[in-house]
Specification:
With about 725 residues, the protein is α+β, with helices and mostly antiparallel strands. The protein has helices spanning about 1-10, 15-30, 50-60, 85-100, 135-150, 160-195, 200-230, 235-265, 270-295, 305-335, 335-340, 355-365, 365-380, 395, 405-415, 440-450, 485-500, 510-545, 550-575, 585-610, 615-645, 650-685, 725-729, and strands at about 65-75, 105-110, 120-125, 155-160, 390, 425-430, 455, 470-475, 505-510, 580. The strands form 3 sheets. Strands 2-3-1-4 form a 4-stranded antiparallel beta sheet, sandwiched between helices. Strands 7-8-6-9 form a 4-stranded antiparallel beta sheet, sandwiched between helices. It is found in: Cell membrane.
Length: about 725
C-alpha cells in the first residue's frame, strides 16, 4: 500500500500539491469559528452532584445573586479604610452599576474585612454566558471603569473572580502561544540546519506545518467541535502548535533520513523517494495510529476539557500523517537533491565511525547489561510517583500568580475566611413538590458541625424559594476552595447534608469545592478506563504491525516504565508544594505512551528490517541502532525541545506539562528506544516475533548487503524498484 502511495505521489507531485491547496482552501473557508469556554464546571456531565446542585439552583433561584466578579478596594498606602474611603467606595460601586456594562446585571456592596483594610463589591453577570469570552470583556471594562472612577482618591481598586480569571487566562494563553511558537521555530531551524546543513530543509517543514497542516487541522477541529458539541478551552491552542511542530517535524525527519540514505545507496532520486515512503510509511502510519488511538481514548473521559483535547489532537496528528505521506514527498520530489541539500556537500556520502555505530556495538555485544541498567534507571525514577499529590485549581494553575485576578484571590483568602471568596451551597429540596416543613435552624446547626466548616448562613426570607420547596444554606469553609482540605471538607458536608435531610426531601451540595471533588472522582474514573483502553489499543496496533504476540507486551511494558519514570521525576521537581495539576498524569500518560510507542515502532521496525537481511538478533540490533539511532535521536531532541518551550509560558499548568512531556520524550528516545527496547529484543531473539516469523529472511541475504551502493545499501535495506520508473529510464 505504501509503495503505491509513494509511487503515485512521486509520479504526480504537482497534482498532489494542487489537491492539497484546493482541499485546504475549501476546508478553511467553510469552517466555523472555534468557541472558548473556561468554566471549570462545564468539564463535568450532569450526573455529578455539583452539577445537579447548579441546575437546581438555576431552577429554584433563577434570580439568585451569584457573583461573577469581585471588586476589591483598599488604600494605596495599605492602611485602614477611613470614612472618606468608605464613602468613595459606595460612590464607585453605585456608578459601576449605572455604567450598564454589557453582561453586567447588578453591582452591590460586599463586606468589610475584619482588619478594616479591605472592602468588596460583588458583580453579577448573565449566568447563560458564564465562562464565555464576552464575560472576560466585561471584566476588562470593569477594571478600566473602576480605575478611572478611583482617580483622585486614596483607593486602589482591583477586579477578581471568575470573569476576571477568564480574562487573565486569555492574556496568559496569548503569551503561551507566542512563546511556544517562537521557541519551537528557533529550535527546529537550528537543529535541522545542524543535521542537514541546508537552509531549505530547515524552513520547509515549518512552512508546510504552520501554513497548511495547522490551519487545516484548526478548521477541522472547529467543525468537529460544532458537530459533536464539544467544549473548547484557551489552553488547547498553545498545545496544538507544539504538537504539530514537534510531531510533524518528526515525520519529516523520518522521511528525509531514509531519503538521504537511499540516495547514498545509489538510488535515482525519484526511486529513492518511493523507497523511502515504502519503508518509512508503515512505521509512520503505525506510530501515528498509536498516537491517534491514544488521543481518541480520551473520548471515554468524563471531563469536558479532555473530551475536547483528545479529538483535537487526533485530528491534528491524522492531518500531519497524511501530509507526511503525500505533501512532504511530493514537494521534495520536485526539488533536485543538490538544491534540496544545498549548500551541504556530504549528503551523498555515508559517514563512518559514528557515535550511533558505537552505541549499536555496545547494545549488540552487551545486551543483558544494557537492558538491566536502562531498566533500573527507569524503575528508580518511577519511585517518585509515591509522593504524587493532585491540585484541582486549574484556573490558578493556568494563570501567573502576578495577574490581577490571582492577586485578588490571594488577598481575599488572607483578609477574609479562606473559603469566603467561593462558598459552598447546600440545597435542601422537596422530593414530592410540597413545601418544606423542616427545622431549618436545626439543619443549619448540623451543617455547622461538619469538619472544616467556618460558618453557615440561612435567611428564610431570601434563602427559601417562592414555592417553599427549596432552601439554600450558604456554607463557608475554613479552607481555600481548591485545596485538598476543602475537597475533603466538602465530602464531610455532603455526608452530613444527605444523612440529615428530613423525610420527603433530599440535599445537593454545590459550589467550587464540590465541583473540584467531582472532578477528582471523574479523574479517578478516567484512570480506570482511559489508561487501560489506550494501552490495549496500542498493543493491538503493535501486534498487527509486528505480527507478534510477544513483542507488544514488552514494548508496552517499557513505555509504562518510561511513564512511571517521567511522572516520578515530575513529582520530585514540581509536586512538593500544592501538587501537580490534576490533568497532568492523563495528558502525560497519553503523550509519553503514544510518542514513546512511536520511537519503539521506528526502532523495532528497522530492527526487523535488518533481521530480514539474515542478521542474527544481536547483529540486527547493532545495525538498527547505527541507522535508526540518528533519526530517533534527532526527532526526540526536537520534539522534547519544542515541548520544553512551554516551560517559558509563565503558566503553571503548561510549565508542568512542558517539562513532563519533554522529559518523557527524552526517556522514550534516549533510554527506551535507544537502549532498552533493542537490547531486550536482542536478548529474546527469534522468540520476540512468535508466532510469526517477521524477522526471518524471505530469501538468503544478498552478498554485499550493507555496502553503500550494494543491493542492501546502508543497513542492508533492499531498494524497492519501481518498474514504471525503470521503463522511463
Amino acid at each position: 500500500m505504501f509503495h503505491r502511495i509513494g509511487r503515485t505521489v512521486v509520479r504526480h507531485p504537482v497534482w498532489t500539491i494542487v489537491a492539497w491547496v484546493i482541499a485546504a482552501v475549501a476546508i478553511i473557508a467553510t469552517a466555523p469559528s472555534l468557541p472558548s469556554n473556561s468554566d471549570e464546571s462545564s468539564f463535568l456531565p450532569s450526573s455529578y452532584e455539583s452539577i445537579k446542585a447548579m441546575n437546581l439552583q438555576e431552577k429554584a433561584f433563577p434570580s439568585a445573586f451569584t457573583p461573577s466578579a469581585i471588586v476589591l478596594y483598599q488604600r494605596a498606602d495599605q492602611g485602614k479604610l477611613t470614612a472618606t474611603d468608605k464613602a468613595d467606595i459606595t460612590r464607585i460601586t453605585q456608578e459601576l452599576g449605572q455604567k450598564k456594562i454589557e453582561e453586567v446585571q447588578k453591582v452591590v456592596d460586599g463586606s468589610l474585612s475584619k482588619d478594616g483594610k479591605f472592602e468588596t463589591a460583588l458583580v453579577q453577570m448573565d449566568k447563560k454566558s458564564q465562562g464565555q469570552p464576552k464575560q472576560a470583556d466585561a471584566a476588562k471594562a470593569l477594571r478600566d471603569d473602576s480605575t478611572a472612577l478611583a482617580k483622585g482618591t486614596a483607593l486602589k481598586v482591583q477586579v477578581g473572580g471568575q470573569a476576571a480569571q477568564n480574562l487573565d487566562q486569555q492574556d496568559a494563553g496569548k503569551t503561551s502561544d507566542a512563546v511556544a511558537l517562537i521557541g519551537s521555530l528557533l529550535i527546529i531551524i537550528i537543529t535541522l540546519s545542524i543535521i542537514f546543513r541546508s537552509p531549505l530543509i530547515a524552513v520547509m517543514p515549518l512552512i508546510l506545518l504552520l501554513g497548511v497542516v495547522f490551519t487545516v487541522s484548526n478548521a477541522l477541529i472547529a467543525d468537529a467541535t460544532k458537530v459533536f458539541g464539544l467544549q473548547a478551552n484557551s489552553s488547547i491552542s498553545a498545545l496544538l502548535i507544539v504538537v504539530v511542530l514537534g510531531v510533524g517535524t518528526d515525520y519529516f525527519l523520518f522521511l528525509m533520513f531514509r531519503y538521504r540514505e537511499r540516495l547514498r545507496a545509489g538510488d535515482e532520486p525519484k526511486e529513492a523517494m518511493i523507497n523511502s515512503v515504502t519503508r518509512v510509511g508503515e512505521a509512520i502510519a503505525s506510530a501515528a495510529g498509536a498516537v491517534i488511538i491514544a488521543f481518541c481514548a480520551l473520548a471515554l473521559s468524563t471531563l469536558g476539557f479532555l473530551t475536547q483535547l483528545g479529538p483535537a489532537l487526533a485530528i491534528l496528528v491524522a492531518v500531519t500523517l497524511v501530509a507526511g505521506l503525500t505533501l512532504f514527498p511530493a514537494i521534495c520530489s520536485v526539488i533536485p537533491p543538490r538544491a534540496l541539500f544545498w549548500p551541504g556537500k556530504k549528503w551523498h556520502q555515508e559517514p563512518s565511525g559514528t557515535r550511533f555505530a558505537a552505541i549499536g556495538k555496545l547494545v549488540g555485544r552487551r545486551s543483558g547489561m544494557v537492558a538491566i541498567v536502562s531498566g533500573l534507571v527507569m524503575v528508580l525514577l518511577a519511585l517518585g510517583t509515591l509522593g504524587y499529590k493532585a491540585s484541582y485549581d486549574l484556573a490558578s494553575g493556568s494563570i501567573p500568580k502576578t495577574k490581577e485576578s490571582m492577586v485578588v484571590q490571594d488577598t481575599l483568602a488572607k483578609a477574609y475566611s479562606a473559603g469566603a471568596a467561593e462558598p459552598t451551597n447546600v440545597y435542601l429540596t422537596s422530593t414530592g413538590g410540597k413545601p418544606l416543613t423542616a427545622d431549618f435552624t436545626a439543619y443549619a446547626d448540623k451543617l455547622r458541625g461538619a469538619d472544616g466548616v467556618a460558618d453557615v448562613s440561612f435567611d428564610k426570607k431570601t434563602d427559601l424559594n417562592k414555592a417553599g420547596t427549596t432552601a439554600n444554606f450558604t456554607v463557608t469553609l475554613k479552607y481555600e476552595s481548591a485545596s485538598d482540605q476543602a475537597i475533603k471538607a466538602v465530602g464531610g458536608v455532603r455526608t452530613v447534608a444527605h444523612e440529615n435531610a428530613p423525610p420527603g426531601s433530599e440535599a445537593f451540595v454545590g459550589g467550587a469545592s464540590s465541583v473540584f471533588k467531582d472532578i477528582n472522582a471523574a479523574v479517578n474514573h478516567d484512570y480506570r478506563t482511559v489508561f487501560p483502553v489506550a494501552a490495549v489499543l496500542i498493543m493491538l496496533i503493535l501486534g498487527l504491525l509486528l505480527r507478534s504476540v510477544v513483542a507488544p507486551w514488552y514494548l508496552i511494558a517499557s513505555v509504562g516504565l518510561g511513564f512511571g519514570a517521567t511522572l516520578g521525576t515530575t513529582v520530585l521537581i514540581f509536586g512538593r508544594g500544592d501538587g501537580l495539576i490534576f490533568l497532568l498524569p492523563i495528558i502525560m500518560y497519553l503523550f509519553v505512551v503514544a510518542i514513546g510507542t512511536d520511537y519503539n515502532i521506528l526502532m523495532i521496525a528497522r530492527l526487523r528490517e535488518e533481521a530480514q537481511e539474515g542478521r542474527s538478533p544481536r547483529e540486527a540490533a547493532n545495525m538498527a541502532l547505527r541507522h535508526a539511532g540518528p533519526t530517533i535521536g534527532a526527532a526526540g531532541l526536537i520534539l522534547a525541545a519544542t515541548f520544553g518551550t512551554l516551560m517559558l509560558s509563565g503558566n503553571a499548568f503548561l510549565t508542568q506539562m512542558g517539562f513532563a512531556v519533554a522529559f518523557g520524550i527524552v526517556m522514550a528516545a534516549f533510554v527506551m528506544a535507544m537502549f532498552f527496547t533493542p537490547s531486550l529484543t536482542a536478548l529474546i531473539g527469534h522468540a520476540a516475533w512468535w508466532p510469526g516469523h517477521a524477522d526471518r529472511a524471505a530469501e538468503p541475504a544478498v552478498a554485499g548487503a550493507g555496502v553503500p551502493g550494494g543491493a542492501g545499501g546502508p543497513g542492508g535495506t533492499d531498494g524497492v524498484r519501481d518498474p514504471e520508473l525503470d521503463k522511463s529510464r
